[in-house]
Amino acid sequence: MPAPIEDIIAKAIKDADKSFFNEDYAKQAKAVTAALKKAGYEVAPVKPPPGLVEWAKDNIPFGRLRPAELITQMYSMMVENVRRFDK
Q: How far apart are CA 59 and CA 2, in angstroms?
């Protein structure tokens, strides 16, 4: 089981910036997002950005899939591609 998300974020911030003054928050934020991605997470908006639903609809996996398999593939595909449309 992956580490709790709070632990991943705390460790990323701790490892990113050792200064006591004038912390580099951008550096910390990049470290957090990289650590989350490495742990298998992706930061995505609650609602899909414009174009993502249409793109996903056009890229639905073909073949006979059980509903759970289709939903799993669609979810993964949309989350992996959210950055393409999040502008």
A: 30
Which candidate, 61, 85, 83, places its Cα nearest to that of 72?
Answer: 61
How far is residue 4 from each of residues 7, 8, 14, 36, 46, measured CA to CA in Å? 5, 7, 16, 10, 20
Domain boundaries, the chain: 5-38, 52-85
pLDDT tens digit sequence for 20-55: 777 788 888 889 989 998 998 888 888 888 888 888
Stated pTM of the model: 0.65
Residue type for 80, please?
Answer: E
